[in-house]
Amino acid sequence: MQKGNIGVTTENIFPIIKKFLYSDHEIFLRELVSNAVDATQKLKTLAATGDFKGELGDLTVRVKVDKENGTITISDRGLGMTAEEIDKYINQIAFSGANDFLEKYKDDANAIIGHFGLGFYSAFMVAKTVDIVTLSYSYKEGAKAVKWSCDGSPEFTLEETERSDRGTDIILHVDEDCKEFLEESRLQGLLTKYCHFLAVPVAFGKKKEWKDGKQVETDEDNLINDTCPIWTKKPSDLKEEDYKKFYRDLYPMADEPLFWIHLNVDYPFNLTGVLYFPKIKSNIDLQRNKIQLYCNQVYVTDSVEGIVPDFLTLLHGVIDSPDIPLNVSRSYLQSDSNVKKISTYITKKVSDRLQSIFKNDRKEFEEKWDDLKIFINYGMLTQEDFYEKASKFALFKDTDNKYYTFEEYQTLIKDNQTDKNGSLIYLYANNLDEQYTYIDAAKNKGYNVLLMDGQLDVPMINMLEQKFEKSHFTRVDSDIVDRLIVKEGQKGEELPHDKQEVLSSLFKGQMPKVKKTEFHVEAHALGENNAPIVITQAEYMRRMKDMASIQPGMSFYGEMPDMFNLVLNSDHRLIKQVLSDAETACAEKLVPVESEIAMLTLRRNELQKAQEGKKDEEIPTAEKDELSEVEKKIEAQKTEKENILNGYAVGNKVVHQLIDLALLQNNMLKGEALTNFVKRSVEMI
């Protein structure tokens, strides 16, 4: 028996391996099964080159668990090792068996994943002792079977042992704090996750079947992997159903994909894979981490943020490349030059594929747009080079369910939706039902209205206003229809100012108190056939509040109250009737107040005119005091006028009914106010 110390430069190599080399203990199974596959692939390479002339036989890698004895065994019938090779590749951590092998067989060893040395030592993350029992393929030439053992210290033993067949058994004596890995279900899950597509068959025990009310083992191997997944095949050899079946295998609960891209490139880097466009609705976060990264069919990670552009994390599927290092450190992957090239290539393939579908089958593209939209918008918002390509095939959808490219839509609206300043006004709605009245009013003016109800439409609008020349987006309910697009010389017949004030006072005092909501009441001539009251919300403030809900740095706007305009249509017969009735009913009280206001206003104007052009110090104090006193009296009389009108409006059911109808139309009438509206409606009927 040979004893010795492993050739490491520090006594603390094992704690370092256990704590820092891998981010998760479960990765040990990937490393050890991958090494077994690696050894098998090497033997197949030797057989192909004629350096191994024996029978290959069954090359299945086998994983066994013995819960009673606390062991996990990974067995292969690959190359095996001699005592000298164990000393070189296991005891000398600085070396890697794959490196020497690749150098010798570089033209035939494309499938070698390598890194046997450090990968093997991941075993000590879960095992207190590890045994290697191995016999080299060259045993007929005198190589002996050997057993290597180590308890996690730098000390090891190496001795001859009995073994009749070539290959290697790695036996893990599982540590007390890692007993979870002795559960069959746990190992089955890990093997499925990490070894599902390894290129050599991997068996975990035997298949089981129900018999006499219990599960019993059969003689059939429980194979856990598909050795020839579709991304290793030529697209010409695959049918549409093959791609859909593979997608169902990867994501059993998902809807069918929209379409897919088969990646296959060998210069300037090697890359294969299949990427699917899933049906994406609204919640981005639920769709992330669905791309699986592989290195020669060995699972690397499904956490691809930072490795591929952010918007590509919404794709599903598989990327496989020997140029992606088999390393679990994402920070290492993110800095790797090959990974960056792959990322750029995939972005180009995605945009090319979308462009191709748009050009060749626009009808299909439009049918899938509602699912594609969030994905494409995300890409345009986060990656400038993708925006440049996508702006040629990205679509607007209007409220009539018609689709337009950006350029087509600009041509459609430029004649009728250009304001007096030469700016193109893009009108949009984000809820067809809630904003129906506003949409209808805009259509009656000959305007087209976009439907922008997606999760990313607010930031998209902000970006497009910067990208498009002299263009503004305005939600269709942000103002009365005549002011949405202000044309040259546009004006209407308005009520005299004093009558507008009367109307505003009648309604302002009767507005319900809504938490974090403020109303500004004004009167305008909107046409006798339009609604008596219209509620609008200014585009800027509403958009800022929308942005605050998705952008933490803008939370200030989210805390501000909602501010709405309540616009009274002075042309409508009901508003005219309310005004007429109020003036008649309140005339006796209003006449002296209005007379007093008129007299005070006249005196204020005289004082202001006398003070025009004078410096402050040139105006007598008495005049200043009188002006101040006059202004206070005017405000007091206006307050008195408002109180008179409010007192009348309190008992006017039409005023309350009109307000509630407007609130109801905007989904703002709730609770007690809604109950009172229903009661009042019944009474009035």
Automatic annotation (TrEMBL):
SUPFAM superfamilies: ATPase domain of HSP90 chaperone/DNA topoisomerase II/histidine kinase (SSF55874), Ribosomal protein S5 domain 2-like (SSF54211). One of its GO terms (molecular function) is unfolded protein binding. It comes from Phocaeicola plebeius. The keyword Cytoplasm applies. Belongs to the heat shock protein 90 family. It holds the Pfam family HSP90. It comes from the Bacteria. The keyword Cytoplasm applies. Keywords: ATP-binding, Chaperone, Cytoplasm, Nucleotide-binding, Stress response. This is Chaperone protein HtpG. InterPro entries: HATPase_C_sf, Heat_shock_protein_90_CS, Hsp90_fam, Hsp90_N, Ribosomal_Su5_D2-typ_SF. ATP binds at residues 31, 35, 76, 81, 96-97, 168, 330.
